[in-house]
């Protein structure tokens, strides 16, 4: 999926939403049941996510998707796959993703940080984690708000800022500090295992 997203020049928000569609719909439909249609379903996840987020001229067409394949599909196959997903999600496909919540939590990330270079470092680190998380399937099961707040905690921990779990986040989220320490620790421990070259796959 990431290679296709790079070729199609899709944004990180589109990839996150496509992964959400894939995890829920494809698991529901059963990979064995989909058989050789799994490929078209994966590409349809990217196309539907792009339709939900991108401007019209950035939405890949069926012909763009077929250009990625050795054996192209009938364009009606993409329409059918998309319709199946829309019915499964009951037409509710405008879903907030990790990037959405990182935008919401930007003020919490920068809480009580006045030094320009520190603020710049925090934002760069958050962007790294935003892109790196799509490589870890275990993180896809977390609510996006929880993962975003774990990113905030990981960034502030790495920059040695106190408190690492901002009081302002604690006040608005149902997650306790111990939960967030676990996931922030996971992010920190795997930092660097996703290389710069891996991140180049993602806009």
From TrEMBL:
Residues 2-93 form the Cyclin N-terminal domain. GO terms for biological process: mitotic cell cycle phase transition. It comes from Tropilaelaps mercedesae. It comes from the Eukaryota. The lineage of its organism: Eukaryota, Metazoa, Ecdysozoa, Arthropoda, Chelicerata. This is Cyclin-J-like. GO terms for molecular function: cyclin-dependent protein serine/threonine kinase regulator activity. Pfam families: Cyclin_N. InterPro entries: Cyclin-like_sf (IPR036915), Cyclin_A/B-like (IPR046965), Cyclin_N (IPR006671).
């Amino acid at each position: 999926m990431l290679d296709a997203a790079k070729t199609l020049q899709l944004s990180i928000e589109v990839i996150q939403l496509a992964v959400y569609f894939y995890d829920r719909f494809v698991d529901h439909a059963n990979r064995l049941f989909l058989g050789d249609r799994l490929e078209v379903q994966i590409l349809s996840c990217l196309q539907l996510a792009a339709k939900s987020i991108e401007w019209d001229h950035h939405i890949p067409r069926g012909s763009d998707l077929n250009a990625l394949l050795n054996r192209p599909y009938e364009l009606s196959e993409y329409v059918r796959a998309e319709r199946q997903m829309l019915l499964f999600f009951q037409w509710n496909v405008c879903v907030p993703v990790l990037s959405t919540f990182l935008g919401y939590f930007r003020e919490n990330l920068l809480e009580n940080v006045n030094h320009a270079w520190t603020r710049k470092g925090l934002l760069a680190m958050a962007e790294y984690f935003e892109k790196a998380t799509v490589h870890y399937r275990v993180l896809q099961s977390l609510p996006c708000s929880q993962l975003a707040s774990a990113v905030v905690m990981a960034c502030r921990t790495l920059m040695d800022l106190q408190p690492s779990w901002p009081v302002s986040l604690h006040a608005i989220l149902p997650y306790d500090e111990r939960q967030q320490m676990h996931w922030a620790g996971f992010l920190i421990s795997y930092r660097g295992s996703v290389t710069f070259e891996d991140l180049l796959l993602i806009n």
